[in-house]
Amino acid sequence: MVENGTIVSLQDISVRAGATHILRNVILNVQPGEAVGVFGANGAGKTTLLRLLATLLKPASGSGVVLGADLNNDERYEVRHRIGYIGHVPGLYPEMTLDENLSFIATAMGIDGAAVASSLAAVGLAGAADRRAEVCSHGMQRRAEFARILMAQPEFLLLDEPHSALDGSAVDLVDDLVRQTIEAGGAAVLVSHDRSRVDDLATFSVEIAGGTLS
């Protein structure tokens, strides 16, 4: 269960890289059933925001809670299995096949191995299960990552340019996944330059400029 019925609560959060502020005084609240669109120029801090929400970064100042876990302490490690994060760079082991990549995740998460084949089939990759990730196209690698999300069924989706490098059928798959997640009481944050596509999914949107949300 999500503590206090809130997926995300960020209050005056700042993130630094050395002496440079990447995010500054960010306030963001996300409730179950909400999808948030995040827009902004390159370098504005969008990906850093996603990495913070994924519990991969610790705030320099401010307070933040994701899925009931305090981002300022080790609680954040305990909720990572409930988060589905897809970034710019595919999170696949290049020397492993698509089947091996998903099987590794399934074993780590205690998921029935049968879900690997069904998840790859659901994204149109049944015929490529034995292909190494490094020889797959970028679009195929993106599909494989969405197969991982389908298999793990996380409560909180964090998607960086989710429609990039995908054909029409895969774009529909992404949209369906987001809708299914929020209808089940989860939430999603989508970073994108494709405002029209994300606006169709988002409950509300925010702009980020110079590391500050508005």
What descriptive keywords fit this protein?
214 residues, four-stranded antiparallel sheet, 30% helix, globular, 6 helices
Structure description:
- This protein is α/β, with parallel strands linked by helices and 214 residues long.
- It has one domain: P-loop containing nucleotide triphosphate hydrolases (Rossmann fold), CATH 3.40.50.
- The chain has a 6-stranded mixed beta sheet, with helices on both faces.
- Strand 4 and strand 5 form a beta hairpin.
- Helix 2 packs across helix 3, helix 2 runs parallel beside helix 4 and helix 3 packs across helix 4.
- 42% of the residues are buried.
From the helix content, strand content and strand pairing, which structural class follows?
Answer: alpha/beta
| CATH classification class | Alpha Beta
Distance linking N and C termini:
29 Å
The tally of structural domains comes to 1
Q: Could you describe the largest sheet, including whether it forms a barrel?
A: 6 strands, mixed
Unreliable spans are none
CATH architecture: 3-Layer(aba) Sandwich
- Oligomer kind: single chain
Instruction: Give the count of helical stretches.
Output: 6
* Helix percentage: 25-40%
Strand order of the largest sheet: 6-7-8-3-9-10
Spell out the helices and strands N to C: EEEHEEEHHHEHEHEE
Shape verdict: globular
What's the CATH H-level superfamily name? P-loop containing nucleotide triphosphate hydrolases
User: Mean of residue pLDDT?
Assistant: 93
Here the CATH topology equals Rossmann fold
Radius of gyration: 17 Å
Strand content: 25-35%
